[in-house]
Amino acid sequence: MFSVxxxxxxxxxxxxxxxxxxxxxxxxxxxxxxxxxMNGEVIEVExxxxxxxxxxxxxxxCGSSLFWLRKNEFVERNDTLRYFYNFTNPCNISEEMSHxxxxxxxxxxxxxxxxxxxxxxxxxxxxxxxxxxxxxxxTAGLSYSIITVCAVCITVVMAVTIFILVKFKVDVxxxxxxxxxxxxxxxxxxxxxxxxxxxLCYKSVTDGGLSEEDRKYLASTLExxxxxxxxxxxxxxxxxxxxxxxxxxxxxxxxxVILVPSFPDPELGSEVLSAIHASLAEKKTxxxxxxxxxxxxxxxxxxxxxxxxxxxxxxSVTWKGGPPSSSFWKQLRYHLLAPQQAPKMxxxxxxx
Length: 352
Fold this sequence. Notes:
Radius of gyration: 44 Å
CATH superfamily of the largest domain: Toll/interleukin-1 receptor homology (TIR) domain
Number of domains: 2
Strand content: 15-25%
């Protein structure tokens, strides 16, 4: 008889062997048969392109075979053909253990004729035979009508967007500049200039020039409401300085020049106007030429030659006054660069 000690050792060895085979075998495999694709499955393909359809089965011995049929004919394994099949041989373990086998149906190019043909994956073994028949279907794409509708919608949206940008370009630019602070709507303010604009009055050839009250309103609105730093001839030019020299110095220190028609102030000499035009052309300083409705009604030939050149060199805005939200102020601010400092009224409101 076996001793108790020997039986105990034998039991331990059996347990170790069970643990060992459990470890190397992993999870148990499913039942034998074809698992993919499903019988009757419809697989979408794109015409004119390559396609790969894999048949996966569980076999119990290396004597089993897995292959593809087109209708009732065998698909060849010749990889030079337009369509063929290949398979992986998993027979690297004992035949008593079940394992996976794959057979792939390969299309170098899917043709229209393939859509009306049944392809069958067949599994044969000594004990059973399994089939999985599939059909191919063309990948559903966007119909012509849907593409047309999308193209029309995109065109309409682009047209409306362009119309809005052209029609309301002033409002859009000011909104982006003031509310969002978009850098593309304003140039770099670090240009060494002292003033945002030089407000220069000249004698109007008609009675339609701005009065002293209008000129004060123009300057105060730009400074107090919109934060522009202005160079004013009467305020910032030293007494006794030559007019032409003083005007050119103010232009050098300003980022833009605003020409304001006034009546009945003394007229700037034609030599001064010519010097202003030459300086603006050389330095590429922005020029905003303020008109009045009376000036627009006059013929251009009634203006001095130097004044005509200046009016053509800059952007023209018609004076209408009104509140800071009116179209005149929007047009004027659109042609000016963004101010280098925040509006004073805005700063006061933030403090409270």
